[in-house]
C-alpha cells in the first residue's frame, strides 16, 4: 500500500505542476540462490543474498541451534536452545519454532514443557520429528501435525547432541557429547544400545541407505564410522583440528567436515584418508550438505558463512552476515 500511495501522489503532483514526475524507486528483484541462516546470537533466522544483502529476518524464542526441513521443503523446524553454547549453564529454552520458508515467517511452535535446551533435530521419513534435549538428557518424539511430544526416551548418555533417524523410521542415532558414547534408540519402545566411540562425539551423518553412521569427535580429532545394523565400529578417519559437523557428498564417496581449527576437510570414504582442506577465517561450527557437490559452513565468531565446492575443494561464496548474527547451520535455497 505504501508504494501505491507514493506513486499516486507523484502522479497528482505531475498533473498539478505540469512538471514530469520521477519514477518511484522499485525494490530490487531477488535472483539466484538464497542463504538461510540460523542466527544463534541474534535469536533469529535470516535470508541473505550470496552478496550478503539481508532480505528478511524472523525472530524465534531464544538462541536457535540446529534446523531440519520438512519432506516437502515448505517448513523449517528450529531448536530454540536458550543458551549460546553447550558449556553455558542455565535452564535453557523449551520451544521448537516452525518456520514457513516461502512466506519467511514463524507460523507456530512446539512447546516441550518440562524438557529444556533442545539441540539436535531430524525429520524421519514417516514425518516424525525427533529432538534431543540437554536438560534433562532425553530424546523426544514429536507429532508435528499435532505439535505434541508423544514420547520421551533417556539416551543412556550425557548431553545428547545431534540426532539422525534411521532410513526405516524405527531408530534414532544420538551422539552423547559428554559421555563418549553414541546411542541407538528404538523410537517406539525407548530401548537403547550404547557404543563407546571416543571423546566428545558431536555431529554425524548417515549414508544414503542408512547402513553407516559417521560421527565427528571434537576432542578425539577423528570421525568414527559405525555399522548401524551390527552397532559396531567399522573404522576411524583421522581429522586433526577438532571436527564438529560432517556430511557426505559425491554418492557417499567423499566425507566433508567442519573443523574448529578453521577449515573444511575432505576425506575419501573408501580409503578413510583425508584428501584435502580449505582454510576459513575462523572456527567452523556447522556443516550442511546442499547437494552432492556443495557444502555450507559458518564461522560464528566472524558472522560469516561459506558456500564450498566439494569437487574443487574451494570456496565459491563468502557471505558476510550482519554484525552480531552469530550463525550456526545454514541452508541454500534455489
- N-to-C CA distance: 28 Å
> Looking at the chains present, what oligomeric state does this protein adopt?
single chain
The overall strand count is 28
What do the pLDDT scores average to? 92
Order of helices and strands: HEEEEEEEEEEEEEEEEEEEEEEEEEEEE
Shape designation: globular
Radius of gyration: 22 Å
Query: Total number of helical segments?
Result: 1
Uncertain regions: pLDDT < 50 for 5+ in a row?
1-28
Indicate the proportion of strand residues: over 45%
Q: Which structural class best describes the helix and strand composition? A: mainly beta
**Order of adjacent strands in the largest pleated sheet:** 3-2-1-28
What does this entry look like structurally?
Helix content is about 5%, strand content about 50%. The protein is mainly β. Strands 3-2-1-28 form a 4-stranded antiparallel beta sheet, with no helix packed on it. The chain has a 4-stranded antiparallel beta sheet with strand order 4-5-6-7, with no helix packed on it. The chain has a 4-stranded antiparallel beta sheet with strand order 8-9-10-11, with no helix packed on it. β18 and β19 form a beta hairpin. The protein starts with a helix and ends with a strand. About 45% of the residues are buried.
Amino acid at each position: 500500500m505504501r508504494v501505491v500511495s507514493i506513486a499516486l501522489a507523484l502522479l497528482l503532483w505531475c498533473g498539478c505542476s505540469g512538471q514530469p514526475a520521477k519514477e518511484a524507486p522499485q525494490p530490487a528483484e531477488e535472483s539466484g540462490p538464497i542463504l538461510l541462516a540460523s542466527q544463534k546470537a541474534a535469536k533469529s533466522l535470516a535470508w541473505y543474498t550470496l552478496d550478503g544483502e539481508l532480505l528478511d529476518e524472523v525472530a524465534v524464542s531464544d538462541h536457535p541451534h540446529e534446523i531440519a526441513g520438512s519432506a516437502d521443503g515448505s517448513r523449517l523446524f528450529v531448536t530454540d536452545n536458550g543458551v549460546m553454547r553447550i558449556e553455558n549453564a542455565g535452564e535453557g529454552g523449551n520451544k521448537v519454532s516452525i518456520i514457513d520458508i516461502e512466506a519467511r515467517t514463524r507460523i507456530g511452535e512446539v512447546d516441550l514443557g518440562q524438557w529444556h535446551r533442545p539441540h539436535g533435530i531430524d525429520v524421519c521419513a514417516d514425518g516424525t520429528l525427533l529432538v534431543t534435549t540437554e536438560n534433562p538428557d532425553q530424546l523426544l518424539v514429536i507429532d508435528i501435525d499435532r505439535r505434541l511430544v508423544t514420547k520421551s526416551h533417556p539416551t543412556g548418555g550425557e548431553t545428547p547432541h545431534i540426532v539422525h533417524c534411521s532410513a526405516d523410521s524405527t531408530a534414532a542415532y544420538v551422539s552423547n557429547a559428554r559421555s563418549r558414547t553414541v546411542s541407538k534408540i528404538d523410537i517406539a519402545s525407548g530401548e537403547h544400545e550404547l557404543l563407546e566411540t571416543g571423546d566428545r562425539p558431536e555431529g554425524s551423518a548417515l549414508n544414503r541407505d542408512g547402513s553407516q553412521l559417521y560421527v565427528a569427535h571434537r576432542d578425539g580429532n577423528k570421525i568414527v564410522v559405525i555399522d548401524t545394523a551390527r552397532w559396531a565400529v567399522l573404522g576411524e578417519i583421522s581429522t586433526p583440528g577438532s571436527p564438529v559437523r560432517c556430511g557426505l557428498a559425491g554418492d557417499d564417496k567423499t566425507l566433508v567436515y567442519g573443523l574448529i581449527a578453521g577449515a573444511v576437510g575432505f576425506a575419501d570414504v573408501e580409503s578413510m584418508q583425508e584428501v584435502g582442506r580449505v582454510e576459513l577465517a575462523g572456527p567452523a561450527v556447522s556443516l550442511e550438505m546442499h547437494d552432492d557437490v556443495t557444502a555450507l559452513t559458518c564461522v560464528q565468531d566472524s558472522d560469516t558463512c561459506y558456500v564450498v565446492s566439494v569437487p574443487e575443494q574451494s570456496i565459491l561464496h563468502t557471505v558476510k552476515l550482519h554484525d552480531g548474527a552469530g550463525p550456526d547451520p545454514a541452508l541454500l535455497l534455489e
